[in-house]
Amino acid sequence: MNILPRLMVNSGLQTQYQMIYSVLPIMYGQMRTKTKMVEKPKPGAGEQYRRVVHYKDEYTIEPLKTTHLAGRDPVTGRVVAKGIGGGIKQKYHWIKWQRDGPAEGPAQEERVIQVMDDGCRTAKIALVGIGDELKYIIATENMKAGDIIRTSKFIPRIPVRPNEGDAYPLGALPVGTKVHNLEKNPGQFFHLIHAAGTYGTILRKFDDKVVVQLPSKREFAFDKTCMATVGRVSNINHNKEHIGSAQRSRELGNRPRSGLWQRKDGRFGRKIRRLPPMAIVAPPPRKPLEVIKLTLAL
């Protein structure tokens, strides 16, 4: 190797040799530390990274197939949510997040056919039929097969006396009623209070707003035409369920962790603060008006 530079001096290739000799370590160093820059998404933007549901073109009560993500991003395959594991394969039952009823006249009646468990959610679900239409809804605490539930969008002068499972606008329900499956804005899908055993409480009414206390104890003022289902969500003992073994925890889709986080103790514990004041839910922003161009020459 030492003879090669002396041979190159006579041939005038010493400068080229020195360049190659200096570039080789840099090339090897780059190859050793070669990395692929991937933009990793952050959790908390509405994505659970638990499963992907393969929906069909039209609504169906047929169980849908799912793909488990186990906390990984479906595009890059990188771990995003560390507390999620694989879990048992489950079929997904498509919930119809809207209750349509008549705006005038008597309420629409539907019959509960079956109440069952769903492995993809904490609450129980109910198969409901009306005419030749079948759909899944979130079951209430005391709902059972054979019950008749009513749906109406009419707001009478005197509040109605609803039964458990009925769906009415907030303005038609009396103060103190327990509700779930609450719309955030009129006409949208049920957005709030889906988890097992949860419920909101109607506190008071003012103008065209109805104040509801959510399970987080926060108070929000919703439009009186927002639909809600009466009663408490089923499976109220879900938070008291005893897991019993590490294997059962893995079957539920939980990834093990080294230590438990103390909620109120330690340096990074949660601090107990006062609840924020009541917030008014604003309507969604309107779409900008389309610009009309006149082509007629005046």
Low-confidence stretches: 3-11
Radius of gyration: 30 Å
Number of separate helices: 3
The largest sheet is: 7 strands, mixed
Briefly note the CATH topology name of the domain at 95-237.
SH3 type barrels
The overall pLDDT average reads 84
What is the CATH architecture annotation of the domain at 95-237? Roll
Secondary-structure-derived class: alpha+beta
How far the N terminus sits from the C terminus, by CA atoms, comes to 89 Å
SSE pattern: HHEEEEEEEEEEEEEEHE
- Quote the beta fraction: 15-25%
| Shape type | globular
Strand order of the largest sheet: 7-14-8-11-12-13-15
Quick one: how many beta strands? 15
Domain Large ribosomal subunit protein uL2 C-terminal: 162-284
Pfam families: Ribosomal_L2_C, Ribosomal_L2_N
Family: Belongs to the universal ribosomal protein uL2 family.
Region (Disordered): 240-260
Can you tell me about this structure?
Residues 162-284 form the Large ribosomal subunit protein uL2 C-terminal domain. Belongs to the universal ribosomal protein uL2 family. GO terms for molecular function: RNA binding; structural constituent of ribosome. The chain has 298 residues and is an alpha+beta fold. Among the domains are: 47-94, no CATH class; 95-237, SH3 type barrels. The chain is 11% helix and 22% strand. The protein is built from three helices and 15 strands. The protein has helices spanning 3-11, 14-32, 246-251; strands at residues 51-53, 66-68, 108-116, 125-130, 133-138, 148-151, 167-169, 178-180, 182-183, 190-192, 200-206, 209-213, 219-223, 227-230, 279-280. A seven-stranded mixed beta sheet has the order 7-14-8-11-12-13-15, with no helix packed on it. Strands 5-4-3-6 form a four-stranded antiparallel beta sheet, with no helix packed on it. A two-stranded antiparallel sheet has the order 1-2. Strand 9 and strand 10 form a beta hairpin. The longest helix is centred in the first third of the chain and has 19 residues, at 14-32. The chain is globular. The termini are far apart. Residues 3-11 have low confidence and may be disordered.
